[in-house]
Amino acid sequence: MDTFLQQVINGLTLGSFYALVALGYTMVYGIIRLINFAHGDLFMVGAFAGLSLLSSLGGLAGKMSPFVIIPLVFIVPMATVGLMGAVIERLAYRPLRRAPRLSPLITAIGVSLALEIAVELLTKAQYQLFPSVLPSTVWSIGNVVISAAQVLIVPVTLALMAALYLFVQRTMLGKAMRAIAIDQDTAQMMGINVDSLISLTFFVGGALAAAAGVMFGTYYGSINFDMGFLLGLKAFTAAVLGGIGNIPGAMLGGYLLGLLETFAAGYISGEWKDVFAFLILIGVLTLRPTGILGEHVVEKI
Amino acid sequence: MKATIRHSLVAALGIVALTFAVAPVAAHATVPKAGTIKLGYFGPLTGSNAVEGIDMENAAKLAIDNWNKKGGVLGDQITLDAQDSPCVAAVAVQAAQKLVTDGVVGVVGPYCSSDAIPASVIYHRAGIPFITGASTNPKLTEQGFDDVFRTVGRDDEQGVFAASIMAGWHAKRIAIVHDNTTYAHGLATQTQVALAKHPGMKVVFFDAIVPGSRDFTAILTRIRSVKPDVTYFTGYVADGGLFVKQFVSLGVPGRIMAGDANNGAEFISLAGKASEKAFITGALLPQMVPSAAGFVKQFTAKYHLAPGPYSGYTYDAMDILLYAIQKTGSTNGATLVRFLKGLKNYPGVTGPITFTSTGDRKQIQYTLLTVRHGQFVRAM
Q1: Going from the N-terminus, what domains does chain B have, and what CATH number goes with each?
Q2: Residues A222, B272: C-beta atoms closer than 8 Å
Q3: Cβ atoms < 10 Å from Cβ of B233
Q4: Which of residues 186-245 of B touch A (CB under 8 A)?
Q5: Alpha-carbon distances, residue B207 vs A28, B216, B259 (angstroms)
Q6: Would the CB atoms of B50 and A126 count as touching at under 8 Å?
Q7: Cα of A10 to nearest chain B Cα, Å
Q8: N- to C-terminal Cα distance for chain A?
């Protein structure tokens, strides 16, 4: 039983990263029907932004109170990478908004590669150590172990997701975003500033990815240039699993995939975990092609 | 624009583009300058093992510098041709091919056995002697190539050593974790084979992690539930450091041991405090070997870095190659190979070097290391 609970905690922690990154994929797909392949790399850049911040603060970081340094190490990368996401949209995707569907897709792949290779060259492809801003205390309840980082990750992720959900459902801006997702042209005719709201979507997606990146760096302690690739791919499949274009779906999909992968590694085999996780994904989609909560049809690429 | 003109323009542009694409490559295929002898090094200069790769390149350069100070070899100055081989087999083969085309007379390196084995085929076909200072998989010297040597030990020896350590701890239940690379899988299997010779010791867990996945909590939780006395991680340091850190924080029972790819400073930085609970099998670090004292001093003075675990072996590999060239008066591959095979107790910085008939090194001494105050120390 202890093992099972431990695996649940492991899975929820991993799932938090997938969920946050999946949200970016699903929001962008929902609003402009683009699968932003570069999104996983914004997660990676967010982690590096956090690292740069901590490195430039240097010794100062150790002397600051955790109540100052922790919000700072979130807010600055989130703002920076959010902005980066919006800029990428403006430069790479907006000119292609009326182009055939394949063009922005290829551009997205190009952006992804550009980001990865840039960081690879800057870091000589070596992994970088991410300093820990959290105490390394662990608590054990019986045989189940929870670390301080895990105690932070899941609640922060849930809080961010709740904030996003409230924003999209309860605010005017959120309503406008949903309107654009339903029918872009009509929304424009209703006086909604489509361009700004799409930029905002990218900003929010990027910010969430950066938050995931910073937490990932803190939790595992090492980051490198290609950490965004596989995680982005899995987050994307998590978004599809939950129903692409559906925000609660992305949250659900992310946690589900995290738990699936952890149970596969924990109960079946460490080296086959990805195979099993994806087999289950294929199974779910075969039975329910729109994903668990989805209404949009999955576009064939 | 008329079709024919447009097509010719496109063709012309294509030719120009192709020329620009090929020219840099052609320029780089350098022929050794008259009056110089070129030696080759390939290893991970980028990627997760770059720290080791650059360390080994530095050692090779140091050996060359020392010879050049004495007047070079056969009256010629020696130059080093270094190629990146970041533990990706396809790139290793390209690097090997490049070295051959550049006209090197001998090669040292690389780090990963998964690079060394495919590259050795290239060197063998070109008749160039190849000495590795870090690749430990037994298959490298079992291919029947007489021009492959190594100054390090083999993983079947390391596996036997690891098993004997576990036996010394009276461990009964052993968990082995690898990462499916040639080296790690090899070491894991060799350890399992060696453990089979100890009755009463059982391998209760044998599985692999996915390298680079960073999250080993799931597999460690499973290991925790089978209650091993010793867990042996045979993968590379980028994963090893995190594996050990998570092992300790999850409270997995028993001891944690890691293979010799984890004997570098990166292990200590990644694992943090948890590194003090770990034991690492491997050969002695240069700082622990009396014959390497001069080398350690020279290396530190020149590079302002402590020499890494494979620097001594790579230094010896390069040194012994140059010695062979000097003594035989030739750069012919077959001559050098014959000389190296017949060499007895060459005084290397890592100790006296004699090669076996398969090109392995006789009498490698393995040891167990652990960490105290952020430094590796001997545990036995």
Answers
A1: 36-152+310-343 (3.40.50.2300), 155-286+367-378 (3.40.50.2300)
A2: no
A3: 28
A4: 207-210, 212-219, 221-222, 224-225, 238, 241-242, 245
A5: 39, 12, 15
A6: yes
A7: 6
A8: 42
Does the beta carbon of A186 lie under 8 angstroms from any beta carbon of chain B?
A: no
Identify any residues that bridge with B346 across adjacent strands, giving them in sequence order: B353
Q: Which two tokens stand for residue B328?
A: 């035989």
CB A160 within 8 A of CB A207: no
pLDDT in tens for each of the 380 residues of chain B?
567 777 777 767 777 766 665 555 544 445 556 688 999 999 999 888 999 999 999 999 999 999 999 999 998 999 999 999 999 999 999 999 999 999 999 999 899 999 999 999 999 999 999 999 999 999 999 999 999 999 999 999 999 999 999 999 999 999 999 999 999 999 999 999 999 999 999 999 999 999 888 889 999 999 999 999 999 999 999 999 999 999 999 999 999 999 999 999 999 999 999 999 999 999 889 999 999 999 999 999 999 999 999 999 999 999 999 999 999 999 999 999 999 999 999 999 999 999 999 999 998 889 999 999 999 999 88
- A128 min Cα distance to partner chain B (Å): 9
Residue type, A276: F
Radius of gyration of chain A (CA): 19
What ipTM does this complex have?
0.82
User: Any chain B CB within 8 A of the CB of A227?
Assistant: yes
Residue with tokens 């390090």: B152
Q: What is the pTM of this model?
A: 0.85
Contact A138 B208 (CB under 8 A): no
Domain total of chain A: 1
Q: Residue B176's closest chain A neighbor by CA?
A: A270
Q: Which of A261, A282, A233 is nearest to A11 (CA)?
A: A261
Which letter does DSSP use for residue B71 in this model?
A: T
Residue A221 lies in a domain: yes
Which residues in B lie closer than 8 A to residue A231 (C-beta atoms)?
none
Cβ of residue A124 closer than 8 Å to a chain B Cβ: yes
Q: What are phi and psi of B155, to 5 degrees?
A: -75, -15
Is B218–A3 a contact, with Cβ atoms under 8 angstroms apart?
no
Does residue A294 belong to any structural domain of this protein? no
Domain extent, residue A131, equals 19-226
Tokens of B101: 């085309």
